[in-house]
Amino acid sequence: MKIIPVIDLKNNRVVHAKQGQRDEYQPVNSLLSPNADIHQVLEAFLNLYAFDTFYIADLNAITHQGDHNDLIRQLMSEFPELIFWVDQGYQSNNHTNNAPKNFLPVLGSECYQDNTLDELQNFKQRFILSLDYSATGPLGSNRLFADSTLWPEQIILMNLAYVGSHQGPNINQLQTFIQRYPNKQFIAAGGVRDSNDLRVLTDIGVNHALVASALHSGTIKREDIEKLQGKKIPL
Description:
It is a single chain. By secondary structure, the chain is an alpha/beta fold. It has a single domain, classed as TIM Barrel, CATH 3.20.20. The chain contains 9 helices and 11 strands. Strands 1-4-5-6-7-9-10-11 form an 8-stranded parallel beta barrel, surrounded by 4 helices. Helix 7 links the parallel strand 10 (185-189) and strand 11. The two termini are 21 Å apart.
C-alpha cells in the first residue's frame, strides 16, 4: 500500500477538506504541523515518513478564484526529489508543457465535458485521471466515465462526499471498478480513517490511497505506514 498525502490549498493556506463543501474549508488543525503553512505541512509529513509522492489540490484554481501556481512551482523546485500530483481544475496541455519534471497533472472529470474530452489525448497518457463523484453521482462528462480508452493507467476514484467524513472508503465502488477494469490501477480517495481501512483496500486490490485527515489526526501513525509500505525508515 502506497500512501499519498493530500495537501488542499486555499488562499495560500493548507485547509481541511470535508465532503466537497469548498466554501466552508478552514485552515487545517494538525497534530503534525504547528500551522497551516504549506512548507510546514509538507515538512511535517516528511518528518512522519519519507513519502515520495504528494497530491496537491489548488482549490482556488479549481473554483476559478485565482491560483497557487507560483507557490506550487516553488515547492517543486525546493523538493526536486519528490513527485507532485497537482489538481488545478481544467488544465490544457499547453499549461503543463513547461512544468518541472516532478509535476504530474491530475485531470478531474468534474472539469471536462463531452466536447472537451479530445484534449485529453494531447497529454499522451502522462496524467492522472480523477473520476469525481458527489453524493448524488458522477461529476462531469458522462462519456469519460463510460469510455475507458480515454483513461491513463492510474485513475483516482474521488468520492467528495466521503472526504474528511470518517466513514471509510467506498469499498463497493472500488471493487466494482477493479473487477470491470483489471488492467487499470485505481487509487482510493475519500474516507480513509485508519490503518485498518488501508488493509481492507489492499485486500481488495487497491495499492494506492490519498490520505489527509487520518495523518493530521494521528489515527495513522509512523509504525502503521512502515508496516503498510513494507519498509522501515530510521528515526
